[in-house]
Design brief:
Strand order of the largest sheet: 3-2-1-4-5-6-9
CATH architecture: 3-Layer(aba) Sandwich
Strand content: 15-25%
CATH class: Alpha Beta
Shape: globular
CATH topology: Rossmann fold
Number of strands: 9
Radius of gyration: 16 Å
Largest sheet: 7 strands, mixed
Number of domains: 1
CATH superfamily: NAD(P)-binding Rossmann-like Domain
């Protein structure tokens, strides 16, 4: 099995990479990124370039599964337009290349509350990319929608750190139909994405959907 991971230097993507390297069924892992993952392994082939140039890496899209773990915040991106390029333009371009090259499975990390009709720019953008990719007619397209992602990041996000503390205190109150609003552990998100791609069951409260 050959896989492509977009966003392998990020919080979720790095965990997906770990799982793929541990999987004996995976023979090759392509990483398309603007910087190196810093991970050395015989399975890995890194394609380093601005993600806007991803189309030049034909071999990276000759795979069975693509995990799209791209994502940022408006604050980190610097503007709404820059945010939309990362969270809408790049995932859509990757999905188009997958469609062109006959990639069987495309798994996208989105966000809880994603809705193209939302008045919240972040949720609207996430919903729009889901809608646009679903129209491409990929053979198998899964969307994973976590709540606030709980995990240790390289960069500091003070606002998220405070939110995580709040989520840990309130998590026990979220059960039944609202259980999905609990903080989503990064390990669970990665395991869910991999399980969906491999057709395996993984019990989690994280929202996902096949589009």
């Amino acid at each position: 099995m050959r896989v492509l991971i977009l966003g392998a230097t990020g919080l979720v993507g790095s965990r997906v990479l770990d799982l793929m390297l541990q999987d004996s069924a995976v023979e090759k892992v392509y990483l398309v990124s603007r910087r190196s993952s810093g991970v050395e392994h015989q399975k890995i082939e890194e394609c380093i370039a601005p993600l806007s140039k991803m189309s030049k890496f034909d071999q990276a899209f000759n795979v069975d599964i693509c995990f799209c773990c791209l994502g940022t915040t408006i604050k980190k991106a610097g503007s709404k337009s820059a945010f939309k390029e990362i969270d809408y333009d790049l995932p859509l371009e990757a999905a188009k290349l997958c469609k062109l090259n006959g990639v069987n499975k495309f798994v996208l990390i989105s966000a809880l509350g994603a809705d193209s009709n939302s008045f919240v720019f972040y949720n609207k953008t996430k919903g729009e990319v889901e809608d646009s990719i679903s129209k491409l007619g990929l053979e198998t397209f899964y969307v994973v929608r976590p709540s606030l992602i709980v995990g240790k990041r390289e960069e500091r996000r003070p606002g998220e750190a405070l939110a995580m503390i709040g989520f840990k205190m309130l998590d026990p109150l979220f059960f039944g139909p609202i259980k999905k609003y609990r903080g989503s552990k990064v390990e669970d998100i990665a395991k869910l994405m991999v399980s969906l791609a491999k057709g395996e069951d993984f019990q989690t409260a994280i929202e996902f959907e096949k589009l």
